[in-house]
Specification:
Order of helices and strands: HEEHEHEHEEHEHHHHEEHHEE
Shape: globular
Strand content: 15-25%
Distance between the termini: 32 Å
Structural class: alpha/beta
Bound molecules: S-adenosylmethionine
């Protein structure tokens, strides 16, 4: 069973392509005193992904794989940044969605395209030097996370570095707050059923991801909760000012926010800003 086998996932996929890279609102956040887009900002991408790869020996032809790469934006950006520091890497974007691979061909032609399911990749064992996984795990059930990381582990070279950047920090700090709040907001926007969303979206916390990765044979080199460092924006007002919402969507979303605000549990800094719970984990495949 993969991420796109049910109707819910197809709708998420549609929503992501509308709001994904290219939109300057989805992903807007404050970081280091500036408003950035966490999906596209080059300094932020450098901080998350390029920096951890830089202290390895420069090597011609090292393979950089972006697992669940969408249109290849991250793989292209990171490989250009590495190239500027003397690493000539071969970027590969791996995605099972044909639409994204067509987009990759047009937008990021330097990235080699591989259409594959992350649960079963046609990559040889020990073939990837640098790996990236950004906002992909929620597309898999919690039970499948270990299989995804295990498959990536198989494909990585011994000593190879792999960075996972993900949503999910509130998950363990405040019980199910994060999942529940986002499930309700997503349901309000899309007219979906909350239980289906909760059952379909799986945000492992930073600790859970580390534990799973260790079980799959990775060493954890570094883990950082970015919840306080990157403050995202999300509110009915912001949605309404940037996206086309019909009256029903707006009413439903506003009701969700009102209810959560009233409960005193909304993870806001103030009326408009949401502490978007993201974290980054740097992993290494054990070299023995
Ligand atoms: C939220 S998007 C993130 C895309 C990209 N990593 C980024 O950060 O911009 C999730 C991506 O995972 C891909 N994906 C989901 N399930 C997959 C699977 N089973 N195998 C390969 N790719 C998958 C989707 O096609 C989509 O491009």
């Amino acid at each position: 069973m993969t991420g796109f086998t049910n109707d819910y996932e197809r709708r998420v996929q549609g929503a992501y392509s509308r709001f994904g890279p290219g939109s300057n609102v989805w992903g807007s956040a404050e970081w280091g005193g500036h408003t950035i887009n966490i999906y596209t900002n080059h300094e932020f991408i450098h901080y998350l992904f390029t920096q951890p790869f830089l202290d390895s020996q420069p090597k011609d032809g090292a393979v950089l794989a972006d697992f669940g790469s969408s249109d290849g934006y991250v793989a292209d950006t990171v490989s250009s940044q590495l190239r500027r520091s003397g690493h000539r890497v071969l970027p590969v974007g791996i995605d099972m969605n044909h639409m994204y691979l067509i987009a990759m061909e047009g937008r990021h032609p330097k990235v080699r395209r591989l259409r594959a399911d992350l649960l079963n990749m046609p990559l040889p064992d020990d073939s990837v030097d640098f790996g990236i996984l950004r906002f992909v795990l929620p597309y898999f059930s919690r039970e499948q996370h270990s299989r995804v990381l295990g498959e990536i582990h198989r494909a990585m070279k011994k000593g190879g570095r792999f960075v996972a950047y993900n949503d999910g920090g509130f998950d363990e700090q405040t019980g199910k707050l994060y999942n529940q709040f986002f499930a309700e907001s997503a349901a309000a926007l899309g007219g979906w059923d909350v239980e289906t969303i909760k059952a379909s979206r799986n945000y492992p916390s930073c600790e859970t991801l580390q534990e799973t990765a260790r079980q799959d044979g990775f060493d954890v080199r570094h883990a950082k909760d970015l919840t306080g460092e990157v403050v995202g924006f999300l509110s009915p007002e912001i949605y309404a000012s940037r996206f086309v919402m019909d009256r029903n969507q707006k009413r439903r979303l506003t009701n969700v926010f009102r209810r959560w605000k009233k409960s005193g549990k909304l993870p806001f800094d103030d009326g408009l800003r949401l502490r978007r719970a993201t974290y980054t984990v740097i992993l290494e495949k054990q070299s023995f």
